[in-house]
Amino acid sequence: MKKTIGFYTCSNGFGHYKRISIIAKYLSNDYDITIYGTWHQMFNLGGVKNCRHVQQHTHNIRWDKTLSNSKVDFKSYKECLENHKEDLLRHDYVISDNIVGILEYRPDAILSGSFFWKDVFFNKFGKNKITDFDNELLDKHNPLILTNKYAETGSIKNYKNKVQFGFGCKDKKYKEFKIDKILTLKPSLNYLDTYSTFFDKLKLKTTSDFSVKENIALMCRPGLGIITHCVENNIPLIALYDKNDSTEIIELAKLVEKLGIGFKQNINRDFNNLKFALYKDNSIYKYNQYEKEGYKNIASYLKKML
């Protein structure tokens, strides 16, 4: 009989679910896998062959709702965990991207992610229940965390019990191209009105589809999934950030410049200072190549470890 793995997903956006789905796909022939995610994630990104899918009926983390309500929703965070307590206890192994609270029921759980939500909540709201709860669990259980070494932000940079990998994308050969257009991508969730206002004021059309892989530069709020897509396809990135957004997004925007794959743009500043026409081609990637195949390597690591 195959060992069972429960993959428990952060409810916020698509990136957490997508990362788990790719890793689960690599493991699906060797383990009996169940993926816990929201209907919104499953409907938009689909399921994984040979894996069960269980819907989370309440959200654990929704940063867009937190921003709109200016309130830390600890009740929903706890309820989402409690709703799946029995499910989580029946698995041989549990892996989460990236909900620390899962340690309350599965202190042996492995975490996947390059930032802690407890840092994001503390930086925005100061002392709060989610940050206190997660800090206590981390101190008590010291879980193993699988990270992208290029995208670590906040206190996870100094966290000791971690294994670091590269970007999760495929390792494609670099191909230089001239940029034909700038694709402006709207966030998958309504994080802040300022992102929509930014595009409206500049009279820029936006899309929710960033499947285009050639001859573009991409302008958007830089979640790790977007950054990974750009690295895979050698796409220059104009990393938009709002000063009131999460510290993770602000740090990731700065990392885009540090990695040499694009530049950051504070959308709260004067629109006349925009640099979005800076790149004529994608030659910035010629000398900025990074370790890839992170999701595949995580799956290989887990096979040896579990």
List keywords for this structure.
306 residues; alpha/beta; Rossmann fold; 7-stranded parallel sheet; 4-stranded parallel sheet
Structural description of this entry:
Helix 1 packs across helix 11 (294-305). This protein folds into 2 domains: 4-166 and 293-305, Rossmann fold (3-Layer(aba) Sandwich), CATH 3.40.50; 181-285, Glycogen Phosphorylase B (Rossmann fold). It is built from 11 helices and 11 strands. The strands form 2 sheets. It has a 7-stranded parallel β-sheet. With 306 residues, it is of the alpha/beta class. Helix 10 links the parallel strand 10 (237-241) and strand 11.
Overall pLDDT metric: 92
* Unreliable residue stretches: none
- What's the number of helices? 11
CATH names the topology of the largest domain as Rossmann fold
In the CATH hierarchy, what is the superfamily of the largest domain? Glycogen Phosphorylase B
Question: What strand line-up does the widest sheet have?
Answer: 3-2-1-4-5-6-7
Q: How many strands, which pairing sense, and closed or not: the largest β-sheet? A: 7 strands, parallel
Strand content: 15-25%
Order of helices and strands: EHEHEHHHEEHHEEEHEHEHEH
Please identify, by name, the CATH architecture of the largest domain.
Answer: 3-Layer(aba) Sandwich
The helix fraction, in percent, is 25-40%
**How large is the radius of gyration?**
19 Å
Domains counted in the coordinates: how many? 2
Describe, in short, the structure shown:
The chain has helices spanning 15-27, 39-45, 63-69, 74-83, 85-89, 117-125, 129-141, 193-201, 224-233, 247-259, 294-305; strands at 4-9, 32-37, 51-55, 93-97, 110-112, 145-148, 162-165, 181-184, 216-220, 237-241, 262-266. The chain has 306 residues and is of the alpha/beta class. The protein folds into two domains: 4-166 and 293-305, 3-Layer(aba) Sandwich (Rossmann fold); 181-285, Glycogen Phosphorylase B (Rossmann fold, 3-Layer(aba) Sandwich).
